[in-house]
Amino acid sequence: MDTFLQVTAYGLLQGGLLALVAVGFSLVWGIMNIVNLSHGAFVILGAYIAWEVQGWFGLDPFLGMFVSAIVLFCVGYVIQRYLINLIVNGPVFITLLLTFGINMALIQGMNLVFTADFRSIQTSYGSNSFEIGNIRIPLVRLLAFLLAIVITFALVAFVKRTRTGISIMATGMDRGAARLMGIRARHVYALTFAISAALAGMAGTMIATIETFDPSKAGKFTLMAFVVAVLGGLGNMYGALVGGLLIGLVEAWAGQYLSGTWVNGIAFLVLILVLIFRPNGLVGKAFYAARVEI
Amino acid sequence: MKKTPRTSAAIIAASCLAVFGINAIPAASAADVVTITLGASVPLTGSLAKEGLLTKEGYQFCQEKVNALSTATIGGKQKKIDIVYQDDTSKPDVAAQNLSKFNDKGIKLILSSYGSANVNAQAAVVELNKQTMVDSGGADDAIFNKGYTRTFNVMSPASEYATSMVKAISEMAKPKPVTMAFLSADDGFSKTVTLGGMKAATALGFTVIGPQYFPNATSDVSAALNKIKADKPDVILGSVHFVEGVAMIKQAKELGITPKSFAQTVAPPILDFATTLGPLAENVLGSSQWSSVVKGQEKYFGKASNYASEFLARFGHEATYHNAEASAACLAMVLAIEKTKSADADKIKTALSALDVQSFFGRIKFDSTGQNTFKPMVVIQIQKGKIITVWPRAIAQAKMIWPYVK
Known about the structure:
The structure holds 2 protein chains of 2 kinds.
Chain A: H1 2-32, H2 39-57, H3 61-82, H4 92-114, E1 129-132, E2 135-138, H5 139-161, H6 163-173, H7 175-180, H8 185-210, H9 218-232, H10 239-257, H11 262-277, H12 286-290
Antiparallel strand pairs in A: 1-2
Chain B: H1 5-30, E1 33-42, H2 49-69, E2 73-74, E3 77-87, H3 92-104, E4 109-111, H4 116-129, E5 132-135, E6 151-153, H5 159-172, E7 179-185, H6 188-203, E8 207-214, H7 222-229, E9 235-239, H8 242-254, E10 261-265, H9 271-277, E11 285-288, E12 297-298, E13 302-303, H10 304-315, H11 321-340, H12 345-354, E14 356-359, E15 362-365, E16 378-383, E17 386-391
Parallel strand pairs in B: 1-3, 1-4, 4-5, 5-6, 7-8, 7-9, 9-10, 10-11
Antiparallel strand pairs in B: 2-3, 11-16, 12-13, 14-15, 16-17
Helix pairs in contact in B: 2-11, 3-4, 5-6, 11-12
């Protein structure tokens, strides 16, 4: 029983990390209807920024993640406003191509600047854990999990209770109507993309503190974010959290009872089953997957 | 600028100098030089970019040394080698396609990619195209069990990776541990490593636990660790790549798993292992294809220690075994070219089959399957942040620290 509880606890914490990676991706997809294939590259860029900040100034990653977030907010804003915005009315295939291109450029840029060496942010508490009964809880994973929850609730509060947040939701629901109401859609889209990139930066900092990273890991995080967003569903800010926790748990339980790559197979089997029985994801809203932009 | 007759004359004169002057020297020497082109498809991007770059450095270093020092001639002309590179993006299908592109350009002599999956795909194409390849990056025994005759691997086979550490622990660990748990990534190379290690451990009287497999390239090996936690093994032996290796050490600490020793393939000899893990890397054992104290020498690189110091001066970082095995593969190809005095792939294949040389990389000699089963591996240990050779005893730089996990 202890082993099962240990596995479950670890799976939940891993799920929190996945949710943290996916929340920004889900936001952009849900609001802007753009599948951002460069999201994983933003995560890795955030990891490098926090790693550099720690190297230069000795800043703890839990402070460094705010630096990552600010830098990536600016990067995200500029990329959306002056690049993606050019084709935002185009077919989804074109946005996929463009974000894929941005992804390639970012990865190769990071390869050139940081090399392909494996990196990790070292802290004195990085592998510390504490016990609850016979269950060990890793400290940094717990903090990342809590961060995912805080960010999700903060995002919900932001879009429901602030004027900017409401304008983001309005633009996501009907861009044409939002424009008629005086909302500057271009700015709102850029803001949304910037927030997503900032969240990716924070996630990257946590990844760098928990595990190793290098530019080639970008694709893995984009795929993770995609799976979690689909599983959780679009149009609901809690979607990424729900999807992340479910994938984390399924992978942990599958790993306990199955071997090797079967673990990945089970995770994707769950995704397929959810899509069969709940095509809009676990907590998603049908409107967001089916809307047509004007 | 207004052109005067004088400036025009100067420009013409400079142009003549540039065209005739610069070309005149190579034209004279080009007549005396024959350049043999080798093709190398290496992963410069993607998940194996780090190892791919190290492999490319090893090939580059070899080219520079050979071209600077070689006095061998072919048909009365001085021999030079030129290695052309293609990025295979860490994907086996691209690695194989690149060899066909080389073949279309008439390049028949190949230096391999990095990673058993890539080399496995390449070996089939090499056979099809009647090219000849020296392998520096794919050690899986499975590559050489298919009857291929044109691929030659300078490295010790995969089955030796874990076996060498099991032997080292058996010989040097006092008190001798009793139980040994095997954790492994589930790719072909890692499984071959694990099965070889388990066989050796059983033969040497250890109680074997596992194997427990986890997905290749995962950063979460907690499930495999949880499965062996209750057994409290004395040694956890991981057949891992870098990412899994780091995850294993970190997550074992998180989960409170404290064996007397961790031993891992591939990851600890990479310089990033110690820098990434810091104190947690201390005293982890690793198996390596090469270290700077390996015995043997030849005319291009001298001894292993010469290779290490000259490589450091050239590239600004310590040579890893990835660098050395790439240089060794290139060296084997060069020696075969010199032996045959030709660039004919069939003749070079025959020469490689008969090659037997003591080099900075140790003995290079191929058995009937094309594997170098004549070179032992070394076991290293991270001691005070440095990679120290601790086995075989004859070349050990320091004693193995044992037991060490508190």
